[in-house]
């Protein structure tokens, strides 16, 4: 995968399959320390110790439809290629936390990509799941939270075309503003 947003989508799809009702995606760019982290936290059913120990093995999957699970192992490899780190913490009936750390200016660090598209795909998911997206660049922060949007919309569904286009543009504009503030 050549964009981090695609890795994020893959990990969050695991959260959805784990019946999470809330997924937090936190992107933190710290230029001074040259660290770029992506943290994904869900409140799904979590993993037992056996599954957790096997989850980054590309030949392990809990799915019954195929015999391999490349997503986590590819994401881990993307981190390690940039001299970064990858950790997963999980507790049954509590949830899972995936932390991917990259060397920010490393030539092999993939760009974030079109995160607004990824978040819209998650919002359009058939399951009733809330998404909190927080993006920090140094000391500036942008936050998007479907719980807040739902409250403002007072019953208008998030999959309404005008709403989803507003969400997409709001996220894109928020990240563009962060990047402009950095300059």
Describe the structure.
By secondary structure, the protein is α+β, with helices and mostly antiparallel strands. The protein has a single domain (4-182), classed as 2-Layer Sandwich (Heat Shock Protein 90). It contains six helices and six strands, in the order αββααββαββαα. A hairpin with a 2-residue loop joins strand 5 and strand 6 (140-145). The protein is globular.
Topology:
Elements lengths: L3 H14 L4 E9 L4 E8 L6 H6 L15 H12 L3 E7 L3 E9 L11 H9 L6 E8 L2 E6 H8 L7 H22 L1
Parallel strand pairs: 1-5
Antiparallel strand pairs: 1-2, 2-4, 3-4, 5-6
Features:
183 residues; alpha+beta; Heat Shock Protein 90; 6-stranded mixed β-sheet; 6 helices; 6 strands; 39% helix
Uncertain residue segments: none
Helix content: 25-40%
Q: Which percent range describes the beta-strand content?
A: 25-35%
Approximate shape: globular
Mean pLDDT: 90
Question: What's the CATH topology label?
Answer: Heat Shock Protein 90
Q: How many domains make up the coordinates?
A: 1
Structural class: alpha+beta
Report the order of strands and helices: HEEHHEEHEEHH
Label the CATH architecture: 2-Layer Sandwich
Strand order in the largest sheet: 3-4-2-1-5-6
CATH class equals Alpha Beta
Reported for the largest beta sheet, the result is:
6 strands, mixed
Give the strand tally. Answer: 6
Concise overview:
This protein is an alpha+beta fold and 183 residues long. It contains 6 helices and 6 strands. Strands 3-4-2-1-5-6 form a 6-stranded mixed beta sheet.
């Amino acid at each position: 995968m050549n964009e981090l947003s695609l890795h994020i989508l893959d990990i969050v799809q695991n959260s959805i399959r784990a019946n999470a009702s809330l997924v937090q995606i936190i992107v933190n760019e710290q230029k001074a320390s040259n660290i770029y982290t992506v943290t994904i936290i869900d409140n799904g059913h979590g993993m037992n110790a056996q599954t957790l120990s096997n989850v980054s093995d590309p030949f392990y999957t809990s799915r019954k439809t195929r015999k391999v699970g490349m997503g986590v192992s590819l994401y881990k490899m993307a981190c390690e290629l940039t001299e970064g780190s990858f950790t997963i913490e999980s507790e049954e009936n509590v949830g899972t936390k995936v932390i991917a750390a990259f060397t920010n200016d490393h030539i092999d660090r993939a760009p974030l990509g079109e995160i607004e598209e990824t978040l819209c795909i998650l919002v359009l998911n058939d399951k009733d799941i809330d998404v909190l997206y927080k993006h920090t660049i140094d000391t500036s922060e942008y936050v998007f939270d479907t719980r807040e949007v739902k409250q403002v919309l007072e019953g208008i569904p998030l999959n309404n075309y005008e709403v989803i286009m507003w969400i997409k543009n709001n996220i894109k504009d928020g990240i563009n503003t962060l990047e402009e503030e950095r300059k």
